[in-house]
């Protein structure tokens, strides 16, 4: 599990911080799932053309083989096979993730909010379906819906943080309809112009992400044991990126909104207190 732990620590300090609150076996399973998802994401971000399409198809075959109990020799494959054998992680969630990653490779055009919602579901929302069975939970489909929303909120946060970086890859996730509604053009984006119209659009989407965070957090009291604090800490830290984006006046072209390690640690008492109150009300 060393490989999966290092992938998680290196690529997402926020997710890694939250994972530290899981018991050891669950923590290892969470790292395995994260590393598998990250491997697919890296193919899309770092590759291009038919080569990337081939690599992504191979990644999907490796995931299916791991779920079938026939993993390849790579540490990610064996770790995912172990996690899938011990917890009811749904292969269908990885299938949706695969479809979301293919949207990136195809250069999918995001015309409406529905397109954006679907993308956020596929590449991050379904991660909630993967993690919830490892946590253990009550509440059935309602809890899974909240987990989905939490993942979508985190992905929308990524999109708002990375507008400038995504443009360098030729990707725009901001829906065309919303751009038109707020008077923001592709040329304005490519020029890195943080206009009043652009700030209004960023506030609108930040408010949407916060609505999703609020809805997603309703399911956290339904998780079992220390998994509650693990997910609460990760969610609170990730939402902090939106705070930093606003502090930077929504300039996501020249600066990358983030939450420092110290600030994340300072958030933990608040996360614990909020969770304590939510569990008492549940």
Automatic annotation (TrEMBL):
Judging by the UniProt lineage, the source's domain of life is Bacteria
Instruction: Name the cofactor(s).
Output: ATP
Q: Which GO terms describe its biological process?
A: carotenoid biosynthetic process
Q: Which Pfam families match?
A: SQS_PSY
Q: Which InterPro entries match?
A: Isoprenoid_synthase_dom_sf, Squ/phyt_synthse, Squalene/phytoene_synthase_CS, Trans_IPPS_bact-type, Trans_IPPS_HH
The protein's annotated pathway: Carotenoid biosynthesis; phytoene biosynthesis
GO-annotated molecular function:
geranylgeranyl diphosphate synthase activity; squalene synthase [NAD(P)H] activity
The Swiss-Prot or TrEMBL record describes its family as follows: Belongs to the phytoene/squalene synthase family.
**What is the protein name for this chain?**
Squalene/phytoene synthase
Identify the species of origin: Deinococcus aerius
